[in-house]
Write a structure and sequence with these properties.
alpha+beta, D-Maltodextrin-Binding Protein, domain 2, Dipeptide-binding Protein, domain 1, Dipeptide-binding Protein, domain 3, 3 domains, 7-stranded mixed sheet, 32% helix
């Protein structure tokens, strides 16, 4: 009997060793650019039209297929992409002429030219089209096609954010031919280094290298992005070698991934801010209209404790909505909001008899937000708010549901600032005509945001952005939590794997180790 047990134990150990060896081999084996490059996404994409989608997962896909006039470099500089040089502005700042790259074609064979650029920005501006970021074209009064490779943008005001808008993924140039005859949400056509092959809705998308690409062709030829919303399962794919890259990784999974042979945990700087959204015009609980009620909630949230205990060293606590990687940030803004003060929150709840007031807390069911929602629910309960009701909701559903009136009092949100400009954070999230989620509807805030974008004077812009930031914080319309660090995992057989400050990756930059 003893000998039998020994044999069984030995066989188990051999099996475990084989699994480990197989996993290590899968991760470390030499690869070529022709091998399928597998990406595991923990949030589902909503579609492939860059003008109508603004979620991170969709951007992961669209950034490979489409291109903008400019791309923001690692140091915040603007690099011409479909443009060949920086815009030439008129003396009064109310027109900008852009020279375009010649000889470029869309994947469907349509020539890229000034007419395509005009067509794209006209769509963005058209309220009937349903652009995800209509504000990107808000300053454009008209456009003149000078010739095939030159376009002039006539502006209704000197736009200090125009160049940043031209670099935004939601202003990627689309094929007029394709947009007119097919739904780009399911069958995308761009000018980028990768072409669309196929997709299963909400499940995966397959891309292949654009062999007619105008620029340097990518090393990696074939790509599959698969949605695996359970992060533990996605990490298991990294362990078995079935996945080569995870663009997002939460802190609790880091040590597990570090233990996988041939897999690296990478980090990069980020301009993303994560925050708690408080709706002042919520009809779920009308008390949200009272500043003192919102302030009590803000003081109950131990944001610094969350960052220290959950995020470890992979994020920095923030007291400012505009973060240090974003234009408009000032150190003073870190002091404008309400710090964690449990005693003050308890006193306010008790004095106003708010113990049983219902607070509807809408929490996306992604790995990042689920844990945060539970943490802050516990904070609020400790402060005496005994009726905080979490509704966990799928990420793609949250993108729609969070825009609905009468839907929530609190929610969690993050903003990956593609342009690294404060206006492009504040306007889409808090300006009355543009913002669909916070529903602040403040004429005073709208005025500050407008004054911050309608000048090219950087000092004036910073002053107005700081004042707007201060108002959002002091009115307790939002509580900042942290400035993120991009965390990702990849197969060591590949090199130059990273995310930019917006959290987006560009497969054309990735290479294969020799």
């Amino acid at each position: 009997m003893k000998r039998t047990r020994t044999i069984v134990i030995a066989l188990v150990l051999i099996a475990l060793a084989l699994v480990a060896t197989s996993s290590a081999f899968a991760a470390n084996k030499k690869v070529t650019g022709d091998k399928m490059f597998n990406i595991a996404l923990t949030a589902a994409f909503t579609g492939f039209d860059p003008l109508r989608t603004n979620d991170q997962a969709s951007t992961y896909v669209n950034a490979q297929i489409y291109e903008t006039l400019y791309r923001i470099g690692p140091n915040g500089d603007y690099i011409p992409l479909l443009a060949v040089d920086l815009p030439e502005f008129s003396a009064d700042g109310k027109s900008a002429t852009v020279k375009l790259r010649k000889g470029v074609k869309f994947h469907d064979g349509t020539p890229f030219n000034a007419e395509a650029v005009k067509y794209t920005f006209a769509l963005i501006k058209n309220p009937k089209f349903g652009s995800a970021r209509a504000s990107l074209a808000a300053s454009i009064a008209s456009m003149d096609v000078i010739d095939d490779s030159t376009i002039r943008f006539n502006l209704s005001y000197p736009d200090g954010v125009l160049l940043a808008k031209f670099a935004h993924t939601n202003s990627a140039i689309v094929s007029p031919t394709a947009q007119a005859k097919q739904d780009l949400m399911v069958k995308p056509v761009g000018t980028g280094p990768y072409k669309f092959v196929s997709s299963i809705s909400g499940s995966n998308v397959v891309l292949t290298r654009n062999e007619q690409y105008w620029g340097k062709k990518p090393v990696i030829k074939n790509v599959t992005m698969t949605v695996i919303q359970d992060e533990s399962t996605a990490v298991a794919r990294m362990e078995t070698g079935e996945a080569d890259f995870m663009p997002e990784l939460t802190v609790p999974q880091i040590e597990r991934v570090k233990s996988i042979p041939g897999v690296t945990v990478g980090t990069s700087d980020s301009a993303r801010i994560t925050y708690v959204m408080l709706r002042p015009n919520s009809w779920v609980n009308p008390l949200m209209a009272k500043k003192e009620f919102r302030v009590a909630i803000a003081k109950a949230l131990d944001t610094k404790g969350y960052v220290e205990s959950i995020m470890e060293n992979y994020a920095t606590w923030s007291g400012s909505i505009i973060g240090p990687k974003v234009f408009g940030y000032t150190k003073e803004a870190e002091t404008y909001g309400y710090k964690f003060d449990l005693a003050a929150a308890k006193a306010a709840v008790k004095a106003n008899h708010w113990e049983n007031e219902k607070i509807k807390f809408l929490v996306p069911s992604t790995p990042q937000y689920s844990k945060m929602g539970e943490f802050f629910q516990a904070n609020l309960k400790e402060a005496g708010f005994n009726n905080v009701q979490i509704e966990s909701i799928d990420w793609s559903a949250w993108l729609t549901e969070s825009k609905t009136a009468n839907r929530f009092d609190l929610s969690l949100s993050g903003w990956a600032n593609v342009t690294r400009d404060g206006t492009e954070l504040l306007e889409p999230n808090w300006e009355s005509k543009v913002s669909a989620r916070t529903k602040v509807n403040s004429a005073a805030l709208d005025k500050l945001i407008y004054e911050g974008k309608t000048t090219t004077n950087k000092s004036v812009r910073i002053k107005k952005l700081e004042e707007a930031n201060k108002m959002i914080l002091q009115e307790a319309w939002a509580v900042p939590v942290y400035n993120a660090v991009n965390i990702f995992a990849y197969n060591d057989a590949y090199a130059n794997v990273t995310n930019d400050v917006s959290g987006t990756f560009y497969l054309c930059d990735f290479t294969v180790k020799q």
